[in-house]
Amino acid sequence: MEKKSRMPSIDLHPTRCHLCGGEVIFTSNARIYQGKEYGSGRCYLCLQCGAHVGTHIPRPDEALGLLANAPMRKGKVQCHELFDRLWKGKDQSRKLRSKLYAWLSRQMGIPLADCHFGYFDLQQLHKAYSILQSISDYDAKLVDGKLVFEPNNQLKATA
């Protein structure tokens, strides 16, 4: 089984925005959610362009990924919609999810430790979306512990 063998290559405690170079502060996420806190209640926020990223609940000073502007946040949602359909609610879902991330990392030519939609910049999100879109007519499953893609019969039945 493939495992994340190293830490991701992104800054989990940003002080400068990778998008605009602006100052980044660690603050309450109520500043971006109209006065209400969600999750860990904390985020990193760029004071110049407004890009932001949430933090982990058990490690509230550790960013969940890269600071993201609106196009990046939209890209993450779109990628997750395609990716999550492949594993959620399926047999051996956690193992299937791990195999899918390993497969996606190979398709993208990046280390498995960096294969997380929250770690992707906009160009990587576009690439991941294209890859995932190319298999949107397929279902993923495990056969003898190996990842297999099969045509989605539901799509054929409705066509």
Please outline what is shown here.
The protein is of the alpha+beta class and 159 residues long. It is 33% helix and 16% strand. The chain has a 3-stranded antiparallel beta sheet with strand order 1-2-3, with no helix packed on it. A two-stranded antiparallel sheet has the order 4-5.
Q: What is the radius of gyration?
A: 17 Å
* Total number of helices: 4
Termini separation (Å)? 37 Å
Count up the domains: 2
Secondary-structure element pattern, one letter each:
EEEHHHEEH
Strand order of the largest sheet: 1-2-3
Number of strands: 5
Shape annotation: elongated
Query: Helical residue percent?
Result: 25-40%
Class per helix and strand makeup: alpha+beta
Q: How much of the polypeptide forms β-strand, as a percent range? A: 15-25%
Could you tell me the mean pLDDT? Answer: 92
Largest sheet: 3 strands, antiparallel
Low-confidence runs (pLDDT<50, min 5 residues)? Answer: 1-5
